[in-house]
Amino acid sequence: MHKKTIGDRSLDFFIYLVLIICGLATLLPLANILSKAISDESAVVSGKVGIIPIGFQLDTMKYVVSSSQFLHSIGISLLITVVGTFLAILITALTAYPLSKRHLPGISFIMLLFIFTMMFNGGIIPNYLLMKQLHLINNLWSIMLPALISVFNMLVIKSYYESLPEALEESAKMDGARNFTILFRIIIPLSVPVIATIALFYAVYFWNDYFHPMLYINDAGLKPLQLYLRDIVMDADSSSAMNKSVDDMMNVSPEGIRAATVIASIIPMLLVYPYLQKHFVKGVLIGSVKG
User: Fold this and answer.
1) Would you say 92 and 157 are in contact if contact means Cβ atoms under 8 Å apart?
2) Long-range CB contacts (within 8 A, 24+) of 38-44
3) CA–CA dist 80, 213 (Å, integer)
4) Which residues does the UniProt record annotate as the domain ABC transmembrane type-1 (predicted)?
């Protein structure tokens, strides 16, 4: 049995130390934001709040989430995230399958066209004019359609497809299976790790995106959560926040409101991530490097 040398133990200690430092670098800022969201206004304003709350209160969180517009915005964001992620995964998986077949004529040129779109795009104004021409302003499709396929994500799934044994498809074709049958009954079930990983990428993108809604959505009834939280942050720094009653603003500060908005926006993703985490590392590694 191999015994670890002093050098091996030192390397293990160094690796654990790096992991601990990275973990603290990730958790400490989050703990600080959470503490500001639930600490007393005077402690937040005076800068006394670190990673431990001072003067525990939930008025700031209530101020952010008590509005009916908040619940409506969450519903809009959930709709965009669920529908957008499903369609994006479907289209990305369908696109990656034929591109993984190197024997197809013209496949190199087609791949070049996809790669070209990763480096160049029309820009904000042409995209806005396109959405206006398609009558998609103040329409949720203006948020989902441009993001239904990411070339990077497609390349990851394509690499995963290429890592699967070709004998699986050959045996299925010998049994009379067609391409769609092979894809949906063989390839996709075997690609659950990478698909779950890419689904997480898409879901995080759709959930966190506020730039495109800010460009294309003017109707308050169609604003997703990120736009609502942005409005809350802007109101916290403006005189409009002073329209609230004294009781409402007693333990509410602009800094606390900003912290509460961050917490409110990340909680749904934190709840979803543990269910996909087991596929995350495997999906990225296998999908990125052909075995």
Assistant:
1) yes
2) 39/256, 40/251, 41/250, 41/251, 41/252, 41/253, 41/256, 44/253, 44/255, 44/256, 44/259
3) 11
4) 74-276
Task: Please answer whether residues 195 and 188 qualify as being in contact, where contact means their C-beta atoms are separated by less than 8 angstroms.
Answer: yes
Query: Does residue 248 register a pLDDT over 70?
Result: no
Whether residue 251 contacts residue 59, with contact meaning beta carbons closer than 8 Å, is answered with: yes
Q: How many residues make up the chain in this entry?
A: 291
Continuous segment of H or E residues that includes residue 222: none
Question: Is residue 198 a contact partner of residue 153, using CB atoms and an 8 Å limit?
Answer: yes
Report residue 157 as tokens. Answer: 């799934």
Rounded Cα distance between 69 and 60, Å, is: 16
Find the mean pLDDT for residues 62-76: 83
User: Taking 70 as the threshold, does the pLDDT of residue 205 lie above it?
Assistant: yes
3 state SS of 217? coil
d(CA 154, CA 158): 6
